[in-house]
Design brief:
The complex is a heterodimer of chains A (301) and B (418). By secondary structure, chain A is an alpha/beta fold. Chain A is built from 8 helices and 10 strands. Chain A has a 6-stranded mixed β-sheet with strand order 3-2-1-4-6-5, with helices on both faces. In chain A, strands 8-7-9-10 form a 4-stranded antiparallel β-sheet, with no helix packed on it. In chain A, strand 7 and strand 8 form a beta hairpin. In chain A, 54% of the residues are buried. Chain B is of the alpha+beta class. Chain B has 7 helices and 22 strands. In chain B, helix 6 links the parallel strand 5 and strand 6. Chain B is globular and about 70 Å long. The chains are: A alpha/beta (301), B alpha+beta (418). At the A-B interface, helix 1, helix 2 and helix 6 of A face helix 2, strand 2, strand 3, helix 4 and strand 7 of B.
């Protein structure tokens, strides 16, 4: 590389920081959607860098499905305290209790789709006009078509066929009353970029991402953590396995991989040679070929 | 693998319907081993269900439900792959005329354009349009892929004719670096692996070219431009007096100690520090996002620009723009619009429509009363406050603007300042 060239991780970092600063300049009530997964942890880290020495000038929102890994919640609370930012928690249990949403039944029941209602309710309650998310275009085919600044109508819905063109680095965040934006500063990062950057910047992650022993159930080829949220089917048994997670969603739907990678270097080696996508283990994406596209149109992130 | 020290190349693919864009990208992903097992299985399954004899590589890129139903790409899809030499971001843009706005979108951030031509059909109107847009948007490099060579018996004559046709057309354009490669995306010739069917072709493969094309001078490192995005004032006990200007460098090389001028105020000061996350940066250049602090207390805010004292941009409220129109509603003179340029947002009045450009002949069509969707035209705009800009050909960031509809808030035009 020549003298006045930055490497691709620095270029992605610079792009993300630029986008995050645009959000804070263009919107009145932005929030950062914090899932507790590595992408939202990365996003929080980038937001910190964007404004340092000032604090992150917007709150984090976490939609708590009640089915989270305990490690995720502990990590979230410690991070919020360290950064001195405000945390808003939207609760799926509360939405169910209020009769806003209805729990799915059956052995494969999941609260994944219910998040949409709690998320939209929380955004409305706090008059949020821009929700910053850690979605990446390489994750899933519907996400490959997302803009950085993604417009949502007054019902929180996405219209993939009628998106605003996004030119150069000129982001159009103008909207009518009641509408909001989803903004994705790390759109252009791949899974490997995220891990390389986490290593480069020495970013702390929950222990779930590294190899550990856990009681698991193998269902339709997906390794799920055994927990109070999962109902065993008649032919299933609990096995203690050495696993780690590549993504972190709810306990009953996030698939693990068998792995001995117990540090960042080993995780990166594993990802560089792996042959399946990270969402390959997500039961929520397997419901239909267009599962993500359908959920996104309704307001999923 | 030295993965942390590779460059990023952004490229866009353009072509007509059915000339195999999606198949080509599928091929690049497949042959560079960027396709995962579960994606491959899903595509194998779909190909079989459709009754195809071969793997439908285009399925790797066609995402939306309606696209797969119609078998065409509607929206810009972004794809990612990396080799040990580079990381690539591909903007796969639609060929249909009604989606030209998406092509312009993909082209606006690209270092390189891949222009596909079907060997059986040669140059088409779409090829003219796409090449013209690549030139208009000043994509610094282009690769012209003559595709489907397998369907013309890998004929050198067919290839030569298309190359000379393209060169004749391109002589009227402004693309400095054009490479021609005969390929078959479906069969894999000259995409990642060298073809065994075309001994007469002595050049490199497409992948080799993507990995080695020189992109470090694609940014302007001469004219210092720092549009201020926001002012950082921590208001904390440790940093009571800190006042930094956040933004991204859009041109030139800034160093601490440099004499600068802020626009529009015209105040002069010296750079105290350039930093990010508290770390001091010795030299900052495009496209780095940084925070700048100055030696003097100067009233500067979003929309202002920090430049070198002896190298000023143009400062003007009357600007001449080449516009790619993107809205169903045609543009007419005397229209009030919102303009977004660097970190400035202001009102603009479209004063005059000067001419449209016929993309086939590149001739000017004068005395027009409107500019319609997918037209390229020259207009003059009066802005409600001065813009600090450079000609687009000098700097793609400080020379570009978008036009927004005041009522609907939609982005309706892409402008390149002359």
């Amino acid at each position: 590389m020549g003298n006045y060239v930055i490497n691709h991780l620095k270029e992605l970092e610079s792009e993300a920081i630029f986008v995050i600063r645009e959000i804070s300049a263009q919107f009145e009530n932005p929030v950062l959607l914090f899932s507790g997964g590595k992408d939202s942890i990365l996003l929080t880290h980038l937001a910190k860098k964007a404004f340092y020495p000032a604090k992150i000038p917007f709150p984090l929102i976490h939609i708590d499905t009640g089915h989270n890994f305990p490690e995720t919640i502990a990590f979230r609370d410690a991070l919020v305290k360290k950064l001195g930012v405000q945390l808003i928690v939207g609760s799926v249990q509360e939405s169910i209790d209020k009769g806003r949403s209805k729990e799915e039944t059956g052995a494969d029941a999941s609260r994944n789709a219910l998040q949409i209602i709690s998320l939209l309710d929380t955004l409305e309650e706090h008059k949020v006009d821009a929700a910053i998310g850690g979605a990446r275009r390489d994750e899933e085919k519907a996400r490959a078509k997302e803009r950085f600044f993604s417009h949502r109508d007054e019902f929180g819905q996405w219209d993939p066929k009628n998106q605003r063109p996004e030119l150069w680095n000129l982001f159009n965040g103008r909207k009518n009353y009641g509408e909001h934006f989803r903004v994705f500063p790390i759109s252009n990062w791949t899974e490997l970029d995220v891990w390389e950057y986490i290593k480069l910047e020495n970013i702390d992650l929950p222990s779930l991402y590294f190899s550990h022993n856990r009681d698991c159930v193998v269902r339709d080829g997906v390794i799920l953590a055994n927990s109070e949220f999962i109902k065993l089917k008649p032919n299933e048994e609990v096995i203690n396995m050495t696993i780690r997670y590549r993504t972190c969603g709810d306990m009953p739907i996030t698939g693990a991989v068998e792995s001995n990678a117990d540090d960042l270097t080993k995780v990166i080696e594993e990802i560089a040679t792996t042959r399946t996508t990270e969402r390959g283990g997500r039961a929520d994406d397997k419901r239909a070929e267009t599962a993500m596209e359908d959920r996104k149109k309704q307001g999923y992130f | 693998m030295e993965y942390q020290n590779i460059e990023l190349l952004r490229f866009t693919t353009a072509g007509s319907v059915d000339d195999g864009k999606s198949t080509l990208i599928g091929r690049l992903l497949y042959d560079s081993k960027s396709i995962f097992q579960d994606q491959l299985e899903a595509v194998e399954e779909s190909s079989k269900n459709k009754g195809f004899d071969y793997l439908d590589l285009s399925l790797f890129t066609d995402g939306l439900k309606s696209e797969r139903e119609q078998g065409i790409t509607i929206d810009v899809a972004y794809r990612y792959f990396a080799t040990p030499k580079r990381k690539f971001i591909v903007a796969d843009t639609p060929g249909h005329i009604q989606y030209t706005r998406n092509m312009v979108t993909g082209a606006s951030t690209a270092n390189l354009a891949v222009i596909l031509i079907d060997a059986r059909k040669g140059m088409l109107e779409q090829t003219h349009r796409h090449s013209f847009i690549a030139s208009l948007l000043r994509i610094p490099h282009a690769i012209v892929c003559v595709n489907k060579m397998d369907l013309v018996n890998y004929s050198e004559n067919v290839y030569d004719t298309i190359v000379s046709d393209f060169k004749a057309f391109a002589s009227k354009l402004d693309i400095n670096d054009i490479q021609f490669i005969p390929i078959s995306a479906l069969a894999g010739d000259n995409v990642v692996n060298k073809s065994e069917n075309m001994d007469w072709y002595k050049g490199s493969t497409m992948m080799y070219h993507l990995e080695t094309v020189h992109i470090s001078s694609d940014h302007n490192h001469v004219d210092c431009r720092f549009p201020v995005q926001s002012v950082i004032r921590p208001h904390t006990l440790d940093n009571q007096d800190f006042r930094g200007f956040a933004g991204r460098i859009e041109g030139g090389i800034f160093k601490s100690g440099d004499k600068i001028k802020t626009l529009p105020s015209g105040f002069v000061s010296t750079i105290k520090t350039i930093e990010l996350n508290g770390d001091k940066i010795k030299e900052a250049f495009a496209p780095m996002s940084v925070i700048m602090t100055l030696e003097d207390e100067i009233d500067t805010s979003r929309g202002d620009m920090i430049v070198r004292e002896n190298n000023l941009p143009q400062i003007n409220q009357d600007i001449e723009v080449l516009v790619a129109w993107m809205a169903y509603k045609p543009l007419q003179a005397r229209t009030k619009v919102v303009i977004k340029h660097t970190t400035i947002e202001c009102i603009g009045m479209v004063k005059e429509l000067k001419y449209k450009i016929d993309v086939n002949s590149l001739h000017r069509i004068e005395s027009i009363d409107k500019i319609e969707m997918n037209d390229i035209g020259r207009i003059s705009i009066r802005t409600s406050k001065p813009l600090f800009y450079d000609a687009y050909k000098k700097n793609r960031q400080t020379g570009s603007l978008i036009i927004i509809d005041e009522q609907t808030n939609e982005t309706i035009g892409a402008g390149m300042i002359i």
